[in-house]
UniProtKB/TrEMBL annotation:
InterPro entries in the cross-refs: Arg_succ_lyase_C (IPR029419), Argininosuccinate_lyase (IPR009049), Fumarase/histidase_N (IPR024083), Fumarate_lyase_fam (IPR000362), Fumarate_lyase_N (IPR022761), L-Aspartase-like (IPR008948)
GO terms for cellular component: cytosol
Reactions accelerated catalytically: 2-(N(omega)-L-arginino)succinate = fumarate + L-arginine
Domain spans labelled Fumarate lyase N-terminal: 99-305
Cellular localization per UniProt: Cytoplasm
Family listed: Belongs to the lyase 1 family. Argininosuccinate lyase subfamily.
Pathway per the UniProt entry: Amino-acid biosynthesis; L-arginine biosynthesis; L-arginine from L-ornithine and carbamoyl phosphate: step 3/3
Group of enzyme by EC: lyase
Species: Paenibacillus albiflavus
A biological-process GO annotation: L-arginine biosynthetic process via ornithine
Keywords from the named record: Amino-acid biosynthesis, Arginine biosynthesis, Cytoplasm, Lyase
Name assigned to this protein: Argininosuccinate lyase
Length: 503
C-alpha cells in the first residue's frame, strides 16, 4: 500500500480528516460551545428583530423562527462532543434550527455571512472578558490606594539602580503603582472601546444588496460604534492585538511589583510579612514561610505575557483579509490572558491588603543609611549660599571619609564637614548641630518634599483623593457599560418571548 492510500485509510476520504478534526475542529468546537454560544444566540435574535423591522421577514415568520430559537437545547449543546457531522458549531446550530423551523430557518441567514457574524461574536466575547479584567484591576487599584493611605508615614529607603538612593515612604511607592495601574486601566478601557464595534451587515466582505439596517444591529447588540468600511470590518484584527498589548503591559507592570514584594519578604530585607493564607511551610525546614503566592503571581504573569505574545505573533504577516489565523486558533489565547489577568489582580490585591509591614525596620534602615545626604547637600546650599556642586563635593568627601573609617551616617560630624569646607571653600560652615541632625533625619527628608508628586504625607493624601475620584469615574463607566450590555440581552430575550407566545 502506498503512502497516499495509507493516509486515506487512516484519515478517511471525506471531510473532516481525522488528524484535522483532532488538531483543529474538535478543540475549536469545544471552545466555541463554551465561549461563543451566548453571543451567537444574541446575534440570531438581533438579526431576526432587524429583518422584521426592515420588512425582510414577516411577523408570522418571525414567530416561527423565534419559537425555534427558544426551543434550541443550549445546555445539551454545551455538553456535546465534536462528531464531524457538522463542520463547526455554527453549522450544527443552523441544522438544529432547520429541523425546528423548516426551510424558513434559512432566512435567518439572510443578508449576513459567517464572516461578519463571526467577528461580532468574537468581539462580544472579548468585551465581556475585558470587563471582568477591568473590574479586577479596579479592585487591585482600590486596595493599593487604601494601603498607601495607611502608610503615608512609613518611611523607607527608595532605590535607584538597586542601590540605596533617598528616603521615601511605602505610600509613595504604592501610589506610583496606583498610577502605573491607572495607565493600564486606561489602555484596557480604550481597548474595550475599539473592540466594541459592530461588524454586522458587512456580510462576507462587501455588505449586501438587501436593505438591512446596520446601525440597528449595532444598537441591538450594545456595540458603541459600527465599523463603517465592510472590508475593514472583516479584515481588521487589531482589536484583538490591541487587547493583547494592553494586557501584556499590565502583566509586565505587575510582574515588576511582584518581584519587589518577593525581595521585601526575605529575612535580610525584613520589610513585609504575608498573611498565613498566602504562604506555605517547608517539608523539612520548620522556620520557613515561603511566599509562594507571590511566586505563582510572578510566574503566571509571565504566562499571561506569553499568551498575549502568541496573539501578536499569530497575527504577524497575515494577509489583510478574512483568514482563519485570526479566529479559532488565536482568540483563545486572548481569552486565557484576560482570565489570568483577572485572577492575578484579585489575588495580588488580597495579598497586599492583608500583608503586615515592619515600619520599625524600614525606618531604622533609613536612619542608618547615607540616603539622606542629598538633603545635607541641599541644606548647605541654603545655609552657606554656595553652589550645589560645591556642596556636593563637600558632602561626597565627608561620606567617602566616613566609609573609609567604617562609620555610618550617624558618625558624620560638624568637624568633618568643616574640614572639607576649609579645603573646598576656604572656611568653616555656619551649619549648627541641630541643623545637621535635621538634615540627616529621613522623616524630615520626606516631610520637606511636598512638591507635587513628592512623598510628603499630605501630598500623598491629596494624590490618593484624586486617584480615588479617577477610579470612581472608571467604575461609573464600567457600571454603565455592564448595564447597557445586560439591558440589550434582556430586550432581545423579551422580544423573542413576545413572538413565541403568539406562535
Amino acid at each position: 500500500m502506498n503512502n497516499r492510500n495509507l493516509i486515506i485509510e487512516q484519515e478517511g476520504s471525506s471531510f473532516p480528516g481525522k488528524s484535522y478534526a483532532e488538531l483543529v475542529l474538535s478543540p475549536a468546537f469545544d471552545e466555541a460551545k463554551a465561549q461563543l454560544l451566548g453571543p451567537m444566540m444574541a446575534i440570531n435574535k438581533a438579526h431576526l428583530i432587524m429583518l422584521v423591522k426592515q420588512n425582510l421577514v414577516t411577523e408570522e415568520q418571525a414567530q416561527v423562527l423565534a419559537d425555534a430559537i427558544g426551543k434550541l437545547d443550549l445546555p445539551a449543546l454545551r455538553k456535546a462532543t465534536y462528531t464531524g457531522e457538522f463542520e463547526d458549531l455554527f453549522y450544527q446550530v443552523e441544522h438544529m434550527l432547520l429541523e425546528l423551523a423548516g426551510d424558513l430557518a434559512g432566512n435567518l441567514h439572510l443578508a449576513r455571512s459567517r464572516n461578519d457574524m463571526g467577528i461580532a461574536i468574537y468581539r462580544m466575547t472579548l468585551r465581556e472578558k475585558l470587563l471582568s479584567a477591568i473590574q479586577a484591576a479596579m479592585y487591585l487599584q482600590d486596595i493599593l490606594i487604601a494601603t498607601a493611605v495607611e502608610h503615608v508615614d512609613t518611611v523607607m529607603i527608595g532605590y535607584t539602580h538597586t542601590q540605596q538612593a533617598q528616603p521615601t515612604t511605602l505610600a509613595h511607592y504604592l501610589m506610583a503603582a496606583v498610577d502605573m495601574l491607572g495607565r493600564d486601566l486606561r489602555r484596557l478601557v480604550n481597548a474595550y472601546r475599539n473592540c466594541n464595534r459592530s461588524s454586522m451587515g458587512s456580510a462576507a466582505l462587501t455588505t449586501t444588496g438587501f436593505a438591512i439596517d446596520r446601525e440597528e444591529m449595532m444598537r441591538l447588540l450594545a456595540f458603541d460604534e459600527m465599523i463603517e468600511n465592510s472590508y475593514d470590518a472583516i479584515a481588521g484584527a487589531d482589536y484583538v492585538s490591541e487587547v493583547a498589548a494592553a494586557v501584556q503591559l499590565t502583566a509586565l507592570n505587575l510582574g515588576r511589583m511582584s518581584q519587589d514584594l518577593l525581595l521585601w519578604c526575605t529575612q535580610e530585607f525584613g520589610a513585609i510579612k504575608l498573611s498565613a493564607a498566602y504562604v506555605q511551610v517547608s517539608s523539612i525546614m520548620p522556620q520557613k514561610r515561603n511566599p509562594v503566592s507571590v511566586e505563582h503571581i510572578r510566574s503566571l504573569l509571565s504566562s499571561c505575557v506569553g499568551n498575549t505574545q502568541t496573539v501578536i505573533s499569530m497575527l504577524h504577516n497575515t494577509p489583510f483579509g478574512d483568514i482563519v489565523d485570526t479566529e479559532d486558533d488565536m482568540q483563545p489565547y486572548a481569552w486565557k490572558s484576560l482570565a489570568l489577568l483577572e485572577q492575578i489582580c484579585r489575588l495580588l490585591g488580597n495579598v497586599i491588603g492583608t500583608m503586615e509591614v515592619n515600619k520599625e525596620v524600614l525606618l531604622g534602615r533609613a536612619q542608618e543609611s547615607f540616603a539622606t545626604v542629598t538633603e545635607l547637600a541641599d541644606t548647605l546650599v541654603r545655609t552657606e549660599g554656595i553652589y550645589f556642586r560645591q556642596s556636593h563635593h563637600i558632602v561626597s568627601s565627608v561620606v567617602r571619609k566616613t566609609l573609609e573609617m567604617g562609620g555610618t551616617v550617624k558618625d558624620i560630624t560638624l568637624e568633618m564637614i568643616n574640614e572639607q569646607s576649609q579645603r573646598i571653600l576656604g572656611r568653616d560652615v555656619t551649619l549648627n548641630q541641630a541643623q545637621l541632625e535635621q538634615a540627616l533625619d529621613p522623616v524630615h527628608f520626606v516631610q520637606l518634599r511636598s512638591l507635587t508628586g513628592g512623598p510628603n504625607p499630605q501630598e500623598i493624601l491629596r494624590m490618593a483623593k484624586d486617584r480615588r475620584q479617577k477610579l470612581k469615574d472608571v467604575q461609573a463607566w464600567y457600571d454603565d457599560t455592564k448595564k447597557k450590555n445586560e439591558t440589550a440581552l434582556v430586550y432581545l430575550e423579551e422580544r423573542m418571548i413576545s413572538w413565541q407566545t403568539q406562535s
